[in-house]
Design brief:
The chain has 218 residues and is of the alpha/beta class. It has two domains: 92 residues, no CATH class; 115 residues, 3-Layer(aba) Sandwich (Rossmann fold). The chain is built from 13 helices and six strands. The longest helix has 17 residues. The radius of gyration is 18 Å and the shape is globular.
Length: 218
């Protein structure tokens, strides 16, 4: 992601002390613990720079749930500032930088999985596809039920393992049915879940994060 952003002229800094956005604790019902982690996140990113994340899930959480966590608190204004500065990677490319072609090259057929965080939390759908359609050598094909969850869902995968695995099975089968070599998505959590199922069953397909795709060939 940094490689692509720097190629496009961005001055990228990375805070090595940053930690989680707080979403895992929040989704598990630990609101106080999530707020404590989120307060650190606000301090880590309190300057006026754009915050670019390779995860629609983290972006969506900061954008949509921080408001509830910090309502009527001393951090409310900072919360709004940070939330408004935060963008998912492909969203930043297409909406802020107005870029749709980064000069990437990757040969093969691929299908795109709409990660829940990006699609449902951030409304991201067309941007990633536009970027992928401009990758030289890449044939993008749509799979059945591309907007359906892969089954990870954080702690859902632990609490409801049989359902989670079944959802991964359906998602990977739909991808295989397209003849694709790659399943491309915006969130590492989806990749981890689907790749785990792929590896366990020795299937001839692999997951790729869209940042890796866009950084290929140059």
């Amino acid at each position: 992601m940094v490689k692509v952003l720097e190629k496009l002229g961005c001055d990228v800094t990375y805070n090595a002390d940053q930690t989680c956005c707080g979403q895992p604790a929040y989704n598990a019902g630990y609101k106080d613990e999530a707020k404590a982690v989120a307060q650190k996140f606000l301090q880590d990113f309190k300057d006026q720079s754009y915050i670019v994340s390779p995860s629609g899930s983290c972006t969506g959480f900061a954008r949509n749930s921080y408001e509830k966590l910090f309502e009527n608190s001393a951090d409310h204004l900072l919360c709004r500032q940070v939330s408004s500065n935060m963008f998912e990677f492909t969203e930043f490319l297409t909406k802020i930088l107005k870029v749709t072609n980064v000069g990437a090259v990757l040969n093969g057929k691929a299908t795109y999985h709409d990660a829940c965080g990006a699609l449902r939390e951030c409304g991201i759908k067309d941007g990633p596809r536009t970027l992928l359609n401009n990758v030289t050598g890449l044939e993008l094909v749509e799979m059945k039920d591309c907007e359906t969850c892969c089954g990870f869902g954080g702690t859902f995968a632990v609490k409801y393992e049989p359902i989670s695995v079944g959802m991964a099975q359906s998602k990977v089968k739909n991808a295989l049915d397209t003849g694709a070599k790659y399943i491309i998505t915006t969130d590492v959590s989806c990749m981890m879940h689907m790749q785990g199922y792929i590896d366990k069953n020795n299937l001839s397909i692999q997951t790729m994060h869209i940042a890796d795709v866009l950084a290929s060939g140059w």
